[in-house]
Model the fold of this input.
Amino acid sequence: MAQKSTLKRVVLTGTAFLFVIGPARAAETCFQALAQTRGYSLGAPVHTIPTPDGRSVLYLRSGPRDTHLGLYQYQLQSHAEHALAQPAAAEHLSVEEKARRERARMTMTGITDFALSDDGSRILVSQADQLSTIDLPGGGQKAVPGSGWIAPRLAPDGSAVAVVRDNDLHVVELASGQDTQLTKGASTTLTHGLAEFAAAEELERADGTWWAPDGQHLVYEEADTSGVEKHFIADPEHPSVAPVEFRYPRAGTANAKLRLGIIPRAGGKTVWIDWDHAAFPYVADVIWRKDGKLSLVLLPRLQTAVAVFSVDPATGKTTRLLTDTDAAWINLHPQYGLGLSGAKALPYWLPDGSGFLWAAERAGKWQLELRHADGSLDHAVTPPSLPFLGLLDVDAAHGTAIVGANPDRLGAGVYSVTLAGGQSTPVAAAAGIHDAVMGENQHAILVDRFAGADGSSNVRVIDGSGKQLAALPSKAETPPAIPDVKYMTVGKLGLDALVIEPRQMAAGKKYPVVLSVYAGPTVKVVLRAPRAYLEDQCLADEGFIVVSVDGRGTPGRDRDFERATKFDLIDLPLQDQVDGLQALGQLLPAMDMGRVGVTGWSFGGYFTAMATIRRPDIFRAGVAGAPVVDFADYDTAYTERYLGLPHDHEAAYKVSNVLTYAAGLARPLLIMHGLTDDNVYFENTVKLTQALIAAGKPYNLLLLPGTHLLPDPLLRARVSEARAGFLKEQLK
Done:
């Protein structure tokens, strides 16, 4: 007889600990199937790149229930797929590579990255610290000499690879295998060629090395972290192993000190790029495109401005081209919740150097702009009615560009626009989320990763008119059913909301309600893509009505709506979530507003803890995953953007601190947290539990053996089952 897992609470010193015990269920549960297939996404093509000749597409793909990525090529004329490289059986990740993958939210294994030369003749393949090349067409896989490499960057002509080992930058000539070490003097606190924590975690910049278009020079970042606070993370499962040291910049403390240098490919003297480092300590991006100028995108520490500089590569001298400012904060990119993976870096210089494309929220909505070479504004390319998401392609000869945009804020489409402005033509605009990629040096085809409003999901190759040329082969399993998501606009502010009900719903019966929440900056939850809510449907089928609301502070609407939470990350979001929840309750009689729970992860975990403590009149229980508790313990680049410096804005940090209200906890709260989390450190949960113990408040705690991410499918399933079980117990 199969035994079911049970939940057991042990109360000790006023503190309740939650354990999941007993064997797994005999039949695969909804949560287990979801975890094993990563939401039925494993097996679908990812990291798709059209080749420059427009005749094929390269991509990575795993099996339907494994994370081991292999490299494939799909020929559009023959509709044939070829396996180019398969992952090795074993791989070893250094501490540095693990940290890089954590910053990139990379939990796949095998061939996790590849790069293509400008002419499409050579592929650089990356697996762990091993590199190899494949020459097209039809070439075999050839190992790049050496090991221990991280952060590889292929030269534009495919003749060499820039790579980092022991924190110094090297160039390996692929024909001869010659290894030239370009930088010296690196240490555990001085790195060359790598993005520092703030850039990788918060500024969406993974690169620390950039090739010149001719492949004869490189720009590299030097980061000195000797003044950054030391944090240590120990592995509780292996107490005999020394803790790992991280340099983590908490709000108000020192950041890494950065320099950018230009160095010849063959080695030699570094030309340091000159700018006011005190005024602009953050390097948001470095762009050195073919036929274009070398440009920097820089930010001040408080991120209320962004500046674009041109650089003279011979001298390192910089010239400021433009500065955009915002009294609250500057967004570097349109934040939407689902990124446009093929978006090109801005500024994007036109081939003749006469000007460049840039994007800003100048009219309250994102717009693509054409600027003169000196940075002055020529005109807006896209109108506010077509909010800009990302630049996919520029065909200067025909005066057109391909962009991502979201005229319907619940979706994202692809459009062709004229650089002169005023005209747009849909390329891929069916209701849902279109995440598109176009290759370099060709304007004929694009790959459209589509999550449809009808629950469909596919990866298509289309031409510039939107005509489908091929569907890339997928090994992904098909969900047994698609969530039936009801989309609504509620409350006096017209908040975007969604509702997911149990599939087997009894007429006239009232159901407990779960608010599935994020409610913070950079993430919009309510999107017209039902497949994104498979886990919420699993939870709903346990006997709940699951709802989500996008309130003030979330992106995708307009500038003022998003920036309303400056200096206070909780009061308006909490009010909007409650207002939206209550408005839904008035519209849907099946929602039992006397039995409401709340759950979320990361910022959603922070919000859950706050909501459970501060609004016991609304929420009867909460499940908080990896919550930030005191934002003074979170990183500089994120926290100071929204709350300023701690010593300048003590009130902002106090009102946004869970500890300010912890003694008021009156409802059951389950906290889940990974012991080795290097993003939201476990000290957040330690401080919260200490405050609750001091106040004599019982709480529930589920310790996780991992980081901020949960790559292990069994662990992911158990966490979801524990959350559902806890909410069932509290809201029954």
Summary: The longest helix spans residues 713-731. DSSP finds eleven helices and 46 strands in the chain. Residues 1-25 have pLDDT under 50 and may be disordered.
